[in-house]
Structures are given as structure tokens and as C-alpha cells.
Amino acid sequence: MINSEDVIDELKKIVKQKGLKYTEQREIVLSILIHATDHLSAEEVYNKIKTQYPESNIGIATVYRALSFLEEIDLITSITFGTDGKKYESNSKSHHDHLICTKCGKIVEFVDAEIEKRQDRIAEENHFVITSHSMQLYGTCADCQ
């Protein structure tokens, strides 16, 4: 497990490199996602902030801006649900792929060594170097079938 302080330090370093102002709001949004056990929508992040940081006075627009910035600098990632918006997670977790229910929005994380090996083999056969990848499989979960 990656230390959350290391991720926050990375945020501070990136903001400084970009010549931007460091804000506590970005740190709070990132911290919520680092400690989240689920993928969260912007509204869910906002609700957690209101509960866990009631004195912060962060508005929903600030949450959206912080999420956009944190995704732009690769500290978080999102899964898009079309008209239902995005769900976010911290990039501090180890690599995993996703099964996504198109009816209820449930997200199941998984790791499969065979899939990873096959991707590497396909890349090698095509003289390609993979720098990153994301796999999202869409369908219906057992509860929605």
C-alpha cells in the first residue's frame, strides 16, 4: 500500500513544477480518494468532504475543478458512465482492471496474470512498448441479471 503522505508530497511537487498555487482543497479531494474503498462520483466526494472536513467550506464546483486537475496530472483516474458522469479513484493503488455493471454502476476490480502476460506478448509481437493500459469490461452484475 502506498503511503498517502507520499501521494500528497507528489501533488505538492507537481503543483510547484507547474508554477501553480498549492491549495488545501486539492489535498482534501485527493485525500478522500486515497482513503476511499469505492470509486466515487464528484457528488460522493463532496458529501464525504462535508462529513469529514465540515470546516473546509469546499463547494461542489471546487470539487469538480480539483478532480479535473488531479486527473490531468495523473494522481487520480476516472471511469466514464455516459450521461451518469464519472467515478474517480486514486492512482496510488496497484494496477487492476474493472468489470462495470451497465445497469446499477457496480464496479468490480480484478487482476489477472494471464491477461497481463498476453498483453505483453501481443505488444512484443508487434514491436510495441506498453507505457500504460486500462481495461474496462462492461456487462450486468449478478444482482441485475
Structure at a glance:
The chain is α+β, with helices and mostly antiparallel strands.
- Order of strands across the widest beta sheet? 4-3-5
CA radius of gyration: 17 Å
Distance between the termini: 34 Å
Q: Poorly predicted ranges (pLDDT <50, ≥5 residues)?
A: none
Strand content: 15-25%
According to CATH, the homologous superfamily of the largest domain is Winged helix-like DNA-binding domain superfamily/Winged helix DNA-binding domain
- CATH topology type of the largest domain: Arc Repressor Mutant, subunit A
CATH class of the largest domain: Mainly Alpha
Question: How many β-strands, per DSSP?
Answer: 5
Number of separate structural domains = 2
Kindly describe this structure.
- The protein is built from 5 helices and 5 strands.
- With 145 residues, it is α+β, with helices and mostly antiparallel strands.
- It folds into 2 domains: 92 residues, Winged helix-like DNA-binding domain superfamily/Winged helix DNA-binding domain (Arc Repressor Mutant, subunit A, Orthogonal Bundle), CATH 1.10.10.10; 52 residues, Dna Ligase, domain 1.
- The N and C termini lie far apart (34 Å).
- The model has no long low-confidence stretch (mean pLDDT 90).
